[in-house]
Structure formats: structure tokens, C-alpha cells
Amino acid sequence: MDILFYRYNSICEPDMLELFQGLGHSITEITEEMTNKELPPQRQMKLVSDALKKKTYRMVFSINFYPVVSEVCNIFRIPYVCWIVDSPVMELYSHSVRNPWNRIFLFDYAQYEEFRGENPEGIFYLPLGANYARLDRLMNGITAKEAEKFSAEVSFVGSLYTEKCPYNRLKERDSYLRGYLDGVIEAQLKVYGYNFLEECITNEILEKFKKAVPFYRFPEKSNQNEKAAMAHLYLGNKVTEQERLRLLKKVSEHYSLDLYTGSDVSPLPKARMRGLAKTATEMPKIFHLSKINLNFTSKAIRTGLPLRIWDILGAGGFLLTNFQSEIPEYFEIGKDLETYSDEKELLDKIGYYLSHEEERAEIAKNGYRKAKETYSLELRVRQMLACVFGDREAESNRTGGSQ
Fold first, then answer.
1. What is the DSSP secondary structure assignment for residue 402, as one 8-state letter?
2. Euclidean distance between CA atoms 304 and 279, whole angstroms
3. 3-class secondary structure, 25
4. Which of 358, 360, 371, 389 has the alpha carbon at shortest distance from 130?
5. How much is the average pLDDT of 379-388?
6. How far apart (Å, rounded) are the C-alpha atoms in residues 380 and 124?
7. Smallest Cα–Cα separation from 111: which of 87, 135, 128?
């Protein structure tokens, strides 16, 4: 089929292109937003509508949701298929999610439950996956020099969230507001598998907070859920920042830690700073060659498995991650991957698996095999297309690995 692919330079886009083409589909790309991040909605609309006037497509596709693209597709009566790979995606609060030609796929089941009522016929649950064709090629091509360069005991690749935490703009001297929010943040830091931030935001706290920081402005035609915005954009990012800083500091004090990040690393003087890793070519080799790979899921991802989990498993790496409630639906903890639920368990499991090499290697092999055979990105794409074009069994019923 002919697919119109609207791109903005997501790291997921090249894999989707490869898989669509590998399945025999013809792709036309709209790429202007890859280099121009200030592209106005009117220009987005013109780019898509002009493309749809020139040629007939079976669907328009994008990573994450674009309200303008949805509106154009609704006018042309063509399926707009998008896969949400991040959280939060504030565009989901737009009234455009209700358009009947939408086919929106969400990887986080809590996010799916939040939005499915807006468009029951057009919103579906679909976890993420890894592109094994690409990853296997990379793993098979690791050189001796790369093995020496990227081998490590414990590695973390990712942001520390210090540069994307708008909560840090809070200058409020109101001791009640600051004390209340600090207490909520500390409480959430101690709980894995359940996000209660939004539940703790009262109307009074919301109004005080809005006066104390530059607050997110919803577009006019949207569900203006300000408590959700506060919970996910502000408190959630702060929890993520503090979790990563505190736990990585503890890990670096007890073990050899390689850190690949563009964030401010001054709070972590004992970690081995490795700079940035190239996402497509270097990051998978780091995962493959590290004895233990750490994942700290952003708190905005309430139940789902973030892309990083699939990245690490897809590269054949050993994964030690925070517990997420959807993990047991797809993997066996202690057999396919490992989880932690507090600082002590994290440190204890790092120590255990560094001293039990055969067990660690077996878990990494099991996780790679299960993710490849059952949850590969190719299988996910096939399920997505089957859902859009007629196979009702691939829709939103939640049945573990069949999703």
C-alpha cells in the first residue's frame, strides 16, 4: 500500500520506515519539520493536504499525534494512524483525537484508559518493540575496538532530566505549597508501580502552583486538564530527575558506573562520564557490552514499558529496571529481566548479578529471545496494520503477548 509518513525526526522513525518498506509498502515522506521545529500549523496543514491532493494513499502515519494532521485526514476521509511512543503527549488532550478517521495506538495502558473514551473506535493499546533486523546487524558487526570501548560493569544511557524539569522554576515562598509538593514528590519516589501524583493535586494547590510558575497553556479546542498537566509535566519530571540523580549517585559510590548523557553531571562526581552516545549505532552496542544496564522509567509513563526496555533487551543486554505494573504481563522477572523496588534492592541486585556471571548472561539471553520471538517491532507493525484494515482480533482487547 502507499503510505504518507509525516516526520519530525523521532528516533523511532527510521525503524518504522525500514519495517513498512520491508513489508512491501511504498512510503512518501514529509520531512520539513525534521529541520524546522517552529513549523506553524498552517504550514503543516498545507504540506499534508498538498500531498494528499497529488496522490492517493491508504493511510497517513506519524510517530506521536498531530492534531493538524488529524484534521486534514478527517477532511480527506483517510485513516490517520499514529503510534504514541512518549509520555506525556499533551496533544492527546486536543479535541482532534475524537475524529472518526483517527487510529491512535498507545503503549501505556494507563494512558490508553485515560483517552479511549474520547474515541472508542479509534484509540487502541499497543506496546512498543525493537527492530531486530537492525539490532542483529549491529551486534554481529561489533569490532574488537568497540568491545574495548563500550564494555562496562554498570551503564546508564539517557537524560538526568535536570535540563527538562519546569518544576525547578518554582520560586514560591509559600511554605505550605512548597512543603506539600515536596512531600508528594518524596512519597512518589518511594513507590514503584503506581503513580498517584494527579490524585494529590487539589484545586487549591493547582491554583497556587499556576501563580508560582509559568504554566502550560492548552490550545483552545482541547480538554484542559490542568491537574494532569501539573502531575505529568511538572511533578512527574521532578520525581524522575530526583530518582535518577539519587540512585545513580548511590550506584556510583558502590560500583563502577559508565554514564552516557548530555545533562549536567556535576552532582555525580564518581561516575565515569562518557558523553553522548549515537542512538542508532553506538547505544545498542553499549547495551550489549555492559554487564548491567539500568533503566529508570519516566514517571509520566504510568504503567507501560518505555522504549528503553525494548532497546536493551533487543540488543541482548542484561536489564535492571524499576518495576512497572505491565512488566509481568510480558516478561518473567528474574528469568527475562530484573527489577528493583527501592534503593537497597537496586544496589543488592547490582552486586549479586556482577558476581553471578552465568546467571546474568542467561537472563540477558532469555530476555532477548522472548522479546524477539513474541514482541518484535515487525510483529507490532503487522498487528497495527491488521487492526486498521480489518482484523478485529488485533484491536484493543488486552491479552498479553497477542497485543
1. G
2. 22
3. coil
4. 371
5. 96
6. 12
7. 87
Tens digit of each residue's pLDDT (9 = 90 or more) over 296-352:
999 999 999 999 999 999 999 999 999 999 999 999 999 999 999 999 999 999 999
**What is the pLDDT, as a whole number, of residue 295?**
98
Q: How does DSSP classify residue 62?
A: E
Strands 272-273, 123-125: pairing kind = unpaired
pLDDT given at position 397? 37
108-149, pLDDT tens digit by residue? Answer: 999 999 999 999 999 999 999 999 999 999 999 999 999 999
The span from the CA of 229 to the CA of 114, in Å, is: 13
296 CB contacts (<8 Å, ≥6 apart)? Answer: 156, 158, 240, 243, 244, 247, 321, 322
For the stretch 47-104, pLDDT in tens is: 999 999 999 999 999 999 999 999 999 999 999 999 999 999 999 999 999 999 999 9
Sheet containing strand 257-260, strands side by side: 272-273, 257-260, 152-157, 290-295, 319-322, 338-340
| Terminal-to-terminal C-alpha distance of the chain | 23
Q: What are phi and psi of 61, to 5 degrees?
A: -130, 145
Chain-centroid distance of CA 186 in Å reads: 23
**The pairing of beta strand 123-125 with beta strand 102-106:** parallel
Count other C-beta atoms under 10 Å from residue 385's C-beta.
Answer: 22
Calculate the CA 192 to chain-centre distance: 17
d(CA 6, CA 66): 9
Dist. CA 188–CA 268, nearest whole Å: 22
Nearest Cα to 7, choosing from 46, 49, 44, 55? 44
Alpha-carbon gap, residue 110 to 341, rounded angstroms? 20
Beta strands in 181-337 (DSSP E): 257-260, 272-273, 290-295, 319-322
Strands 319-322 and 338-340: parallel
**CA 383, 388, 393, 397 torsion-angle sign:** positive
Distance, CA of 140 to CA of 284 (rounded, Å): 11
Q: Is residue 403 pLDDT above 60, yes or no?
A: no
Q: Which pTM was predicted?
A: 0.93
Q: Is the peptide bond prior to 88 cis by the omega test (within 30 degrees of 0)?
A: yes
